[in-house]
Structures are given as C-alpha cells and as structure tokens.
Amino acid sequence: MTRSPVLATRAPSRWLPLVASCLGTFLLLVHTTIVTVAVGPIGAELHAGFSTRQWIVDVFTVALAGLLLGMGSLSDNLGRKRVYLAGLAVFGLATLACGLAGSAAQLVAARAVQGVAGAAMFATILPLVGLSYHGRDRARAFAVWGTTAGVAGAIGTLAGGVLAQLVGWRWIFLGSLPICLVALVLAARSLVETERTADRVDVPGIVSFTLAASAATFTVINGGDRGFTAVSTLLGATVTVLAAVAFVLVERVSAHPMLPPGLFGTREFVGVLVVAFGYYFATYGAGPVLSAWLQGDTGLSPLATSLVLTGQVVAFFLVSALLSGRLHALPPGRVLGGATVLIGFGCLTALAVYAEPSWLALMPALLVSGAAAGMVSPVFPAVAIAAVPPAYGGTAGAAANSSRQLGLALGIAICGALFTRRDAGPVATGVGSAAGSTAGVADAMLCCGVLALVTGALAGWLLRSPRRAG
User: Fold this and answer.
1) CA nearest to 436, candidates 309, 294, 287
2) 16, 37, 56, 88: which could form a disulfide with 190 (CB 3.0–4.6 Å)?
3) Residue whose C-alpha is closest to residue 355's, from 257, 447, 441, 240
4) Phi and psi at residue 328, in whole multiples of 5°?
5) For residues 320 and 377, is the Cβ–Cβ distance under 8 A?
6) How far is CA 213 from CA 65, 71, 154, in A?
7) φ/ψ of residue 450, rounded to 5
8) Residue 16 pLDDT greater than 90, yes or no
9) 72-130, pLDDT tens digit by residue?
10) Per-residue pLDDT tens digits for 190-201
11) How big is the chain by its Cα radius of gyration, in Å?
C-alpha cells in the first residue's frame, strides 16, 4: 500500500489510524445527541427551564459548528495530530466537568467547552484519515468513518436514555472518560504528525463565523421562549446579520481565508454544503422535541423513549452496512440528493400523530429517515473532498462537517421554537416536565420534511453529473 510521505517511518498497523480516528469520532458525535432523552431528568435535578434545557443540548453543537473551520486553519499551523490530541484531552476534562456540574449554568458552560474541543477533533479527523489511505483503501476508510459518524449520533440518543434511567444522568458523562482515555492513547501511538504551514490563522473569520452561528441559534431559542418581537430576540437577530456580513467581507479581503470564497463557484461544493445542512437538520433536529413529547404526552419512561428512537439507529445501521459499498459507485447527486428527499417524505409521515398520538405514529418517520441517512452518511465524506481541488480537501471536509453541525444546531432550535409556540403550559413556563402538544410535534416534523425535500432537490441538481458531448 502506498503511504503518504508525511507519515513517519514507524508505521502503525494498517488500520490503526482509522480505528483511532473512528473512536474519537464516535466519542465526539455520541455527545451531540446523548443528552437528548436525558435532558428531562437533568433539567428536573438542576431546576432548568425549557430554554435552558435546549441550551444544554444545543450549546455543544453551536460551538462545534462555529469553530470547525477555524480549528482546521489552526491545525495547518500547529499540526493536525497535535491539535487533535489537544482537543481530545480537553474534551475529556470538559466531560468530567459535565458529570460533576452542580447547576444548569455550570453544565451549559462545560458543554460549551466540550464543543470547542470537539471542533479541534472534528476539524482534523478527516484530513488525517485521508492522508493515511489511498485508492480503494481510502474509499473504504471514508465509508467506515461515515458509518461511524452516523451511527454515533443515533446511538447517543439510546445511550442517554438508558443511562439516565438505570444509573443516573451523570454517568452519561463519567462513563465516557475511559473511552476518552483509550482514544487518546491509541491516537498518540498510531497517528503521525503532518507538515506545518506558515500561513496565518484567520482570526477575524473565526470570530465572525462563530458569532453568527451562536447568535442565530440564540435568536431562535430565545424567540421560542420569550417571543420573536422581544428586545433580546431582535438584538440577537441583528447580531446574526451583522456577524454574517462581517464574515463575508473578511473572507473576501483576507490573504489566508479559512473558507476561500472561490470555492463557492464550484456547484458541487455548494451542493455538498446544502445536503449536509438539510439531511442533518431533518434527521436529528427534532430529536429533543420527540423525546419531550414521548416522555410527556405519551408517558413513556426515558428508557422506553430511547428504545422507540432506536428504530432510527437500526435502520441507519442496516442500510449503511449493506449498501455503502454500492452507493459509492452511483452518481453523488442521486445518492445524496435522492436520499435527502426520502428523509423529507419520511418526516412527513409523522403527521400521522394527529390521527394516532402515540409512539407508533412516529415509527415510519424514524425508520425511513434513519434508512435514508444511512445512504447519505457513508458517501458524504468522499464527495465533500472530491468536490474541490486536492489542495482544498481538508477545508472542504471541515466546511461540510460545519454545515452538518450547524444544521443540527438550528434544527434543534427551530423545532424547539415550533414546539413551545404550540404549548403555553409547562414547557413554556419551565415548570414540570418537558411535555409538549401533539400539534407542536407535527409542526416540527413538517418543518423537517419540507426542508429536506427542498434541500434534497437542490443538492441533487447541484451535484448532477455533467452532460457528455455527443
């Protein structure tokens, strides 16, 4: 097997770099969803209202999405392995702080640090995998990584509910520490450092993008909690617009932009960003809403709620395991765009809750969206990197993952706002359990369905194969 010249002569076993990368990815992405079902017991013990509970879930993803691109630039300067290991170590310390948190504010702060560390990990994983493998091995590695990424986010939902009910929510975090230690040791031994560049880090770009992502999420969550005409909500919207404009201007004039504007002239790259945002928003954005509704209106326990949501995990895993190899041979527009459209149709089946407000009405939506996401996830990394010239492969991978996490962050915020808008009772006031109305669940799933249909169709068009002459 041909190896990259940046790899040291002390070669590890053939697949150890992939194992190290997948273990870190699994740990990182499990924590994007692991509090989804457990946030009810967490909020009850820490006396957190619904908006605070949303931040416990969402602040991790906001920090992850906002800093991914910046951490990619930083890793070019400092070395990707070095940044990955530092992120993994800080992630472990922040996870310990989450498990020991004595208040909701402390937990939100620790989750934010988790997200910052997670961005350092996520920004470097795909480039490290790409450098370690070539040819068919690279395609296999990306497929395994993509499957791991998709399964991890889904398994987090199951693990959170099981641990919260059986041993207590703090073990959601404390139980991750041994895995974090193993991942750190394995990565240190198997991954090899990349060459460092002298390019300057785009600090203004990092700050403006992170501020825009954070302010947008705050605006939606605060709007659902206090109203979209509240002064704080309008202020958040203003900051969002100003920060987004500042980011565009900064990237246009920067000598070393973290997201080169020229990439947006490539329709394949734009298509990857669109599908990343849409499929993650639609598949996982309504997770906290479904969890709250199942535990509140239908009276399921956290464990039972996790078992219901596991249907999505099972469907994802089966499709990904059985079809990932064949999907790589198909045109990316048909796979990524078509599967995202299928997610949209799946989400729309959840409108059956109007006729049958029970967990059974959600099963078609969970199974279809999980299966369709299982088509997208294994193919997604390779398409993202192939969409741009080789010199920008790392940037493209980071941008695609950032778009995916931003879709999740805004999905949680928007679905939560739709949920609270329909419910003026315990959810809106923060008193009692996080129960919401059936209409709120239907609104959230309708939003996910329409968004997936639109983004899937658009991505399919952008990722279409060029016409052959003659």
Assistant:
1) 294
2) 16
3) 441
4) -65, -25
5) yes
6) 8, 15, 23
7) -65, -45
8) no
9) 777 777 888 889 999 999 999 999 999 999 999 999 999 999 999 998 988 888 778 77
10) 777 766 665 677
11) 21
Instruction: Give the up-direction half-sphere exposure of residue 383: CA atoms within 13 A in the CB hemisphere.
Output: 36
How far apart, in Å, are the Cα atoms of 181 and each of 95, 136, 174, 223, 276? 12, 31, 12, 40, 30
Residues 318 and 14: their CA atoms lie apart, in Å, by 26
Find how far residue 312's CA is from the centre of its chain: 16
How many degrees, rounded to 5, is the angle at CA 300 between CA 299 and CA 304?
175
Crossing angle of helices 338-348 and 438-462, rounded to 10°: 160
Residue 41 near residue 215, CB atoms below 8 Å: no
Three-state secondary structure string covering the chain:
CCCCCCCCCCCCCCCHHHHHHHHHHHHHHHHHHCCCCCHHHHHHHHCCCHHHHHHHHHHHHHHHHHHHHHHHHHHHHHCHHHHHHHHHHHHHHHHHHHHHCCCHHHHHHHHHHHHHHHHHHHHHHHHHHHHHCCHHHHHHHHHHHHHHHHHHHHHHHHHHHHHHHHCCCCHHHHCCHHHHHHHHHHHHHHCCCCCCCCCCCCHHHHHHHHHHHHHHHHHHHHHHHHCCCCHHHHHHHHHHHHHHHHHHHHHHHCCCCCCCHHHHHCHHHHHHHHHHHHHHHHHHCCHHHHHHHHHHCCCCCHHHHHHHHHHHHHHHHHHHHHHHHHHCCCCHHHHHHHHHHHHHHHHHHHHHHHCCCCHHHHHHHHHHHHHHHHHHHHHHHHHHHHCCCHHHHHHHHHHHHHHHHHHHHHHHHHHHHHHHHHCCCHHHHCCCCCCCCHHHHHHHHHHHHHHHHHHHHHHHHHCCCCCCCC
For residue 6 the two structure tokens come to 């940046």
Cβ neighbours of 456 (radius 10 Å): 27
Distance CA(387)–CA(264), nearest Å, equals 11
pTM for this predicted structure: 0.80
Residue 457, Cα to own-chain centre: how many angstroms? 21
Q: Quote the CA–CA distance of 83 and 61 in Å, as a whole number.
A: 19
Give the distance from CA 399 to its chain's centroid: 12
Contact call for residues 100 and 163 (beta carbons, < 8 A)? no
Specify the length of the chain in residues: 470
Token pair in block for residue 249: 């201007």
Query: Which pLDDT tens digit goes with each residue over 27-63?
Result: 888 898 888 888 888 988 998 887 788 889 888 988 8
371-388 confidence digits (pLDDT tens): 999 898 878 877 887 777
